Amino acid sequence: MSTASPQPRRPRSGSRRDETARLAVLHAADDLLVEHGFGALTVEAIARRAGVAKQTIYRWWPSKVEILLDTLIEDSTKRLPVPTEKPTAESIRGYLRDFARFLTSDPAGKVLLTLIAEAQHDPATAESFHKRYLGPRRDQERDMLARGTDAGEVSPGLGPDATLDALVGPLVYRALTGSAVPRDLVDTLVDGLLRPRSD
Alpha helices, DSSP H only, in the chain? Predict the structure, then answer.
């Protein structure tokens, strides 16, 4: 998995109007994806919903995938932050529970699942998705796990990447197949893979 840093934002004029238009585009793309699916999502439809010119969208984003990536990055940063304080077994467990809810209940979770699916057969989407979202978030999650291990809060039996894959993989799979994520699934994964410290 790529570990490149996120791409810098494209230059904006910095005016309030531009920021308002940018957010309108992101919200419109998110809403239309949930309502109609990826195949029916077009730049023209996004422009109509957002109330901006199609040329404005093409000036800022080369494709609908890049719009969705901006939406995902912005929403997940706000609603699914990776814990940055000293991690504990419970804060890691809480993060995974939040991730399960994000996947199954948050519109931005739908964006994440859509991009995972689209990346399977579109190399350009896969490259951008890994470079802009998956790689940077994996770096943060790996750091969270390493700090929890160093603090003696958890004792993973696998390497960092294998542990993270084993923790999030079942959650993503259930969400991709339209299944709920039982609370006890997260508990079982954490207890079995991280071996939290017993107080």
Answer: 16-36, 43-50, 54-60, 64-79, 89-105, 107-119, 123-129, 135-150, 160-176, 183-193
Cα distance between residue 172 and residue 99, in whole Å: 9
d(C-alpha 103, C-alpha 187), whole Å: 17
Give pLDDT tens digits for 20-58.
999 999 999 999 999 999 999 999 999 999 999 999 999
Handedness of CA 98, 99, 103, 109 (dihedral sign): positive
Residue 134 CA to residue 66 CA, distance in Å, equals 14
- In angstroms, the CA 108 to CA 81 distance is 13
Global pTM? 0.86
CA distance 94 to 163: 16
Residues 6+ apart with CB under 8 A from 120: 126
Cβ–Cβ contacts within 10 Å for residue 116, how many?
A: 16
CA distances from 185 to 3, 49, 51 (A): 28, 39, 43
For residues 101, 105, 111, 114, the Cα torsion angle rounded to the nearest 10 degrees is 90
Measured CA to CA, the distance from residue 193 to residue 190 in angstroms comes to: 5
